[in-house]
């Protein structure tokens, strides 16, 4: 019956996949985990601490990805960076514009042009789906500075990419899942099957296998590439997650945007465990009903990237923005809210240090 339920959930997802990852624990017992690597501790190389600039004259525009403010994940992390900039550097007016799932490219172009025409500078595009639109609009408004999150393909002098080593942060999520699973069987739920989300899967699988080589791992995507409703469909997130949980998985990690609410709902119903993404989801009001099952979150510090970008814009020094936000500069890490992984901190820090040193090479593809 469990196999049938899992099969049904996979058909429903449209592009399901099982990565395997070892035979798992035949008796349903916790994994036999390996000792973490040894070596010098991690020392982050964040930008030299400076007093926050005065950004009172800065009017920033923000073009949301689908889900918008309140998604408890990707978009909310970008908002958090601007909210902090308002507190710390008196950031002036901020205008936010929403998007819709599977909207035409013309809608993105209109949104960016509106912000630029109204004098917002910088304009921050949240998500790689804006790449073509940012490329076009940045040429039309050469005196406006643009930033785009999760894309580094736009090669215009007034465009700054804000990109991350998601696979490295997800590696730590995999270590957490392997140590906390009571059945040595875990899962990954991706929103849309794109190269970016596959980086999350690849790191998660690699981390889990590094900590517990015999662990069983399942991966599933809610929609195929091109169908962005996978980031905004909690019902599908719940259905696919329920299939994994019924099949024996007891820790699920998602990279599914607002669909993660459905993942958390299924995990709570199954009395299992979940790992959030992007923001510290244990603290997010929009997923508060499920906080007790969120044992950690992979922190993709979009908030830090947006905050630093605005600060560097106000200083007139956008060249200070890192090429990539990673473990070494604090751009990706893990959350400890709720105290559920306090016992794992030494091991996680040891793995993080080994990744930062280059002793562990984390794959970007499953």
From TrEMBL:
Pfam families in the cross-refs: Bmp
Gene3D superfamilies named among the record's database cross-references: 3.40.50.2300
Localization terms from the record: Cell membrane
Chain segments carrying region Disordered: 15-58
Location of the ABC transporter substrate-binding protein PnrA-like domain: 64-333
Lipoprotein listed as a keyword: yes
Protein name from the UniProt record: BMP family protein
